[in-house]
Fold AprA.
Amino acid sequence: INQYLGVGKGKNTVEQYVEYVKNDLMGIARDDLVYNIARHVDGTVHLFEKWGLPIWKTDDGDYVNEGRWQIMINGESYKVIVAEAAKNTLGMDNIYERVFIIEPLLDGDRIAGAVGFSVRENKFYVFKAKAVLACMGGAVGVFKPRSSGEGLGRSWYPPFSTGSSAYFTIRAGAEMTCQEVRFIPVRFKDAYGPVGAWFLLFKSRAISAIGGEYMVERRDELQNWAPYGLVKPIPANLRNYLGMLDVSEGKGPLLMMTNEAIAKLADAYKDDPKAFKKKMKELEAEAWEDFLDMTISQGLLWAATNTEPEEKPSEIAAAEPYFIGSHSGASGAWVSGPEDIAPAEYFWGYANMTTVKGLFAAGDASGASSHKFSSGSHAEGRIAAKAAIKFVVENNTQPNVDMAKVEELKAATYKPLELYEANKNFTTDPEVNPAYIKPKMFMFRLQKLMDEYVGGVSANFSTNKPSSLDKAMELLGFMKEDAEKLGAADLHELRRCWENIHRMWQA
């Protein structure tokens, strides 16, 4: 868990966390939003533990810290435990699953609900609501991933996060913020395994292919980014930037010195062969457990490539860019702060309400409040939900839903199925047809233009306004036209069509 302050034990203060976030995002953060989440997040983590989440403990009963703000958990059961709590609270009769939300419904300047379709049954859903909380994840697959071929779809962030939060809030008319803040995490190469435990818990170094430690050799570069380049800890984007400079100069790949880190931790037991052997086994188990708890595919990759972390280092690399508001990104809707601490211009009645009446946002959907991660996103969801209930109590009228608009949205939703069915026999191979484009090909087209013109992996994460971005906007204009010709053979492909429309709007 990446956000836990330990305020009750006097380990940290909320003010210190706000300062950390602002430094790490180089000033791009709303103090009021970060503060509000930070003062409530510990209570959320305590709820997780109460519900059954295994959290590592010291002999004294304190949580085991990975870093200053991070605590260690057995994460393989994390999502199941939190989801079970939601099910128990709401009751299964009040939960709709496998429904893909397409569009918001509006009554003037107020949210009125949403429409969507079942990805398993031939059902179209119309949800009427007095208030709506958007928390539909960030955006993955907008940029071309490093993974290709049989690994296509492998990403650091969940591939089912397809820009739906941004699409929903934008289409509702909400003001957005920090869309230029793309998150590019450095992770273990190809399987995107987390590096945090290795840097913070195992105290590992990262080096270039020729043995240089870029954080040391390029320290002078940080002066150019003062004052943020001079703070401790060094902002994540600057740490990543220093490594990417090495790669740009042909010194890649970058290597995580797992073997060195494990050896150093076991070194204290070197005079006792039995204790040394036992410690090495413990460290080896923790190294594998770090991946098996969170990124099983990284463990599979180690096994497939005969990689023993205690014997040799592993490659790390910058991933493709993502749009998220919860991790070290900041993109999302511009939301109201809490009444007691937000400046007057940042408060309009209800915490976490967007600029659309009755529409609230949390997690990846809300912007300018980075470093909330899973625990902070859950805390923010609690904050937003309580504010939404207050809104309903104080605005207890049912918004009007224009059923003609609903029918229009329903027709647009199923149009790809009709287009495919009407034209599939025109060609011998239904995958290639002049009357429609399949969602997978549409996705490849989007990813290619974003990768090459908007600072993806192949462009070494760089772009410019006079040429690249203008060209991307031109091509996105063509894509918006082509989106009208998306074709789907079944409900699964229909979902893929709409996922890519959402991605396109995020782009």
About this structure: The chain has 15 helices and eleven strands. Residues 107 and 400 are 6 Å apart (CA to CA).
